[in-house]
Amino acid sequence: MPRRRVPLSVKPLKCIVESLLFVHDHPLSLDRLALILEEHERADIRIALEDLLEDWGSGERGIMLSQVAGGYQFRTRPEYGDYIRRLTKTKGVKFSQSALETLAIVAYRQPVTRAEIEYLRGVDSGGVLKSLLEKKLLRILGKKDVPGKPLIYGTSKEFLELFDLKDLSALPTLKEIQELAPPDPFADQPELPLAAEETSSATEEV
Q1: For residues 194 and 99, is the Cβ–Cβ distance under 8 A?
Q2: Is the predicted pLDDT of residue 119 greater than 50, yes or no?
Q3: Residues forming a β-bridge with 76
Q4: What pTM was estimated for this model as a whole?
Q5: pLDDT at position 202, please?
Q6: What is the pLDDT of residue 89?
Q7: Residue among 162, 166, 157 at smallest CA distance from 194
Q8: Which of the 8 DSSP states describes residue 148?
Q9: pLDDT at residue 6 in the model
Q10: Structural domains present in the chain
């Protein structure tokens, strides 16, 4: 398939967008880029982003441009993560079983209250909710309009970044997870709606 031609007016803009994405620590959305580059047309910024996605889509590179958390971000390819950890001497993130359960419940059922989470888990979840809030993986969305006005929880932008998700619609369905999961020797226990491979190589527990 022949590569599409990029308008001449977009080529300098493409380099500008690339440099902004390179220096920023978090994903930049099209809206944010349009605000920063107010002298450029939004349509041209979109074309520049699409062309950069194509440029950096080759598996021959160690870096890729990803659409994650509602924006665009340069990321190293996951298959080279072990080498990067040797350089940075940082640890990955390892989730405890309780944190995984809570994250999965919130991700798939949000907005959700603490009482609803505890009903599904069958145990007190105050501590793990506090920990996930401190790590900014969960956020408080407001209060539910019922007696007592309990807080309601949802996942955060940082959650999407950590799990490399473009948005919540990118979450695998429960059916897809169940099809991928190996037979459960404890079939009478509730299954967790979260893929185990997300945390298999991690070493720091949440």
Answers
A1: no
A2: yes
A3: 63
A4: 0.66
A5: 36
A6: 77
A7: 162
A8: T
A9: 53
A10: 11-82 (1.10.10.10), 93-205 (1.10.10.10)
Contact 121, 153 (CB under 8 A): no
Q: How would you classify the pairing of strands 93-94 and 151-155? A: unpaired
205 CB neighbour count, 10 Å cutoff = 11
Checking DSSP bridges between strand 71-76 and strand 63-68, what pairing results, if any?
A: antiparallel
Residue 156 to residue 30: CA distance in whole angstroms: 19
Q: Taking residues 174-191, report their average pLDDT.
A: 46
Q: How many residues appear in the chain?
A: 206
d(CA 133, CA 139): 6
What is the structure's pLDDT at 95?
Answer: 79
Say how far apart CA 37 and CA 98 lie, in whole Å: 44
- What are the Cα distances from residue 32, in Å, to 17, 28, 42, 70? 11, 6, 11, 11
**CB contact at 8 A, 74 and 167:** no
Residue 97, number of CB atoms within 10 A of its CB: 9
